[in-house]
Amino acid sequence: MTTAPLHLGISRCLLGEEVRYDGSHNRDNFLTEVLGRYVEWIPVCPEVEAGLGTPREPMRLVGDPQNPRLVTIESKIDHTRALKTMAVNRIEELKKLDLSGYVFKKSSPSCGIERVRLYNEHGVPSRKGIGLFAQAFMKQFPLVPVEEEGRLCDPTLRENFIERVFCYQRWQDLVQGGVTRQTLVQFHTVHKYLLMAHHPQQCEMLGRLIGQAKQYRLKELADRYGELFMNTLAVKATVRKHVNVLQHIIGHFKKRLGVHEKAELADVIRDYHHRLMPLIVPLTLIKHYVQIFDVSYIREQVYLNPHPKELMLRNHV
Length: 317
Ligand code: SF4
What we know:
alpha/beta, 8 strands
């Protein structure tokens, strides 16, 4: 695990700062108290930074889903230009900060990443909108993991997001350190089982890309790999795919287990498969055997330790 603090962007109101239109905040305890121990937050409030002040009249998205406008609800003042100008300038600053992820405030016409209310000319809402700043950010940083604080209450989505954040940080470290074909092979090797837990076929595609490395210029190879790597991790890992990975890992030392040890491991994996126990249980047993039998190829797999254990992201059923 890398120990450098993560740089994560965040909607400023989620840190407890009173920047909402009515002067309140949306402090999120998990982000501030738990994840905050590993993160250097980069707070952004697009509406305040666009000069709209606090408190301010609430706004909403209106018009064309492809090109919505940000308009105040009562006085109908159009703040689209101010928000877009702010977004261009702030994104230039964020480019220098090597963000590994971003947590946005859900449903906000500036910060929401999906399903934001968008009103048509008759004042009828649909859930087709994306916050103006969030949209500009995602366009500029298509590989940076983004999530909304509301979705982080789901344990599976939470693990997926935080895992991607750490993976992206490692990817950035590799690229900034000067990627070579050899370091790319090493990077892929240690991430193999993690990738398999998300999308086995795309994991194979990444393996083939590495196998054909000499056919590409290095920059093109790294760009292709980085994009497919992050897209693969964005696919949700499921219990079934985790079971598949656990079986593959066990294959590396199964012959060295006694009858009772094999039966115990099979029981634990079956219970995990039936959601009677969390992933951490079979993994802990597997890590124990990996240590005992000194299976270095498995010991180095990021899959065994993708994020700090103190976050307890694999302790849910
Ligand atoms: S949702 Fe975004 S624009 Fe609204 S208060 Fe929070 S940070 Fe500011």
